[in-house]
Write a structure and sequence with these properties.
The longest helix has 25 residues, at 577-601. The strands form 4 sheets. Strands 1, 2, 3, 4, 5, 6 and 7 form a 7-stranded mixed sheet that branches. A 6-stranded antiparallel sheet has the order 17-22-21-20-19-18. A hairpin with a 4-residue loop joins strand 20 (541-545) and strand 21. It has 18 helices and 22 strands. The protein starts with 7 loop residues before the first helix and ends with a helix. It has helices spanning 8-19, 23-37, 41-50, 75-92, 109-122, 136-145, 172-178, 193-208, 235-246, 271-280, 314-322, 355-369, 396-404, 415-418, 446-462, 467-478, 496-505, 577-601, and strands at 62-65, 98-103, 126-130, 150-154, 163-170, 187-188, 231-233, 261-264, 286-288, 327-331, 338-344, 349-352, 386-390, 407-411, 424-429, 433-435, 480-489, 510-511, 514-521, 541-545, 550-555, 561-570. By secondary structure, the protein is an alpha/beta fold.
Length: 605
Amino acid sequence: MTELRSDTLLTTVGRWIELDPDPGTRAELTELLEDAQGGGQVAYDSLERLFAGRLAFGTAGLRAELGPGPLRMNRLVVRQTAVGLLKYANEKLPSARRIVIGFDARYQSDEFAFDTAEIFRDAGWDVHLFDQPGPTPLLARQVLVQDADVGVMVTASHNPPRDNGYKVYLGGGLSRHLEPDGLGVGAQIVSPVDQEIAQTIETVVGEDFAPHAAAPAALPATEVTRPTGVNSIGEHARHSYQREALELLDPENYPHRDITIVYTAMHGVGGQAVTDLLEAGGFAEVVAVKEQFEPDAAFPTADFPNPEEDGALDLALKAARDHDADLVLANDPDADRLSAAVYDATTQSWRQLSGDEIGALLGRHILERGPLRDGWQTRDGDDQPVIGNSVVSSRLLGKLAESRGLGHEETLTGFKWLARVPNIIFGYEEAIGFDVDPVHVRDKDGVSAALIFSELMADLKAKGTSAIEALDEIAAEAGVHATGQVTIRVDDLSQLGEVTAALRKAPPAEIAGDAVVDSLDLQSVPLPGKEFTSAKSTDALIYLTAAGHRVIVRPSGTEPKVKCYLEAVSAPESEDSSAVSAARTEAETHLTRMRSSMQEILGKD
């Protein structure tokens, strides 16, 4: 290409550069633009990719790789999002006037938080901004404490180091205006609110790029400073969270603290909060993994800072062996998730528990203890507590609740739905998300969950048993439920729907030799016993087999991959340990067959 280029793309890029307040991303785009204008095909192709669309705003907010242009996380995308969120709130409830903002320690998290605070402050809002990076659950708690209309948490959770994100909660008068039953106060947004906010953001962007549009609202600056004129959320909030979390303990009936815990923050923001909480709760022997304790946006020891990834717990497990520990605990980088590993005396090795196993153990503990806190939200005069989990999680907790005579709710994926269950006293999802205090935190919380899991582990040790044996006891009572996954990674988020679309055209008649006897398409039908609405339409397929096994296929909501959730079940012939062991072997053997079968059905090598 030798001729000079002058077209809509280059004009759009030029305007984007004018609007972009970040010198770094401005410089990247300016170099590409000048090269493309001079005839550079590679530069032009790069700009086409960068400006091929816009980062979609959904119920999870925003999440993407850092970089220039509308498909990446950067200061201009965040500022346009914040302005759209502000306009939406003002249009829906003009009296809405309070926002709380938190951020983790990832690259540019503080800058995105500061930009958001500045925009809402300039609009006359009462802005409450955390004074330092911190866990997502502390932000979620402050939405309720401050009775804030809006909460924003800048985080990409457990995504790779170069990613960042923007989560939105609604509370206060705004949430009660949009959901009069009050069940959504303090929770993340759900449809159609996300779509309405996205439309408002589109309007903001359209105004930015309209002919004769106003000059940029923010001038380029190398350093983004904390805005003045905002309220600081600091030590008082952190101490208050800790005090409230300690109230969840039952020192009279569960007094034991004699365990050694190895803890890793995975280079995230949970380290100080969790170790301080455990110490305050009486757990004196807590060994922190020093290499991963301090927040570090580069995540030097974890390319994928997700405790579930292979190798993520290697340093923690080494420390556990070195210190003869009883328990390993790990948070993801924003500390809203919790993973755990325990020693298996049968295999004489450490074993990382799955999210479903942790959920079952916590669930049984809470079933036996009763609600950890009074005051859960009710509806229509029904005051009976329930526990719940997302549909992609194991059905084991539901069976356990049934055997104990307590209500159980199964929801669509995500804590945005679990948080809205009336009377919920415990909820979990298989992706190591747990909420042991739904009264105070309407989201998953890896900090308070670490405390309560330590309580139950210390109790098991005092009784001369273990987590592995406890899982066998649960299986004897409610059946063996072996779970696993098949994951298909895609190159582009636009490909996510292709896998489920293909299955709708050609659904499986059998899985691992077991006939499919029922199927549900959650795009058009509800979960059993629930009412279907367009807001609850989701791209997920459920297959139930004649033998009672289950497969769920759905695209990830935050990552470029399609997940296939497998569950194989088997009922022990008796409560005898040998019968449980035989049933477990049967279920796990069939789970392996299901994995191979689904890999073949999905065309995965």
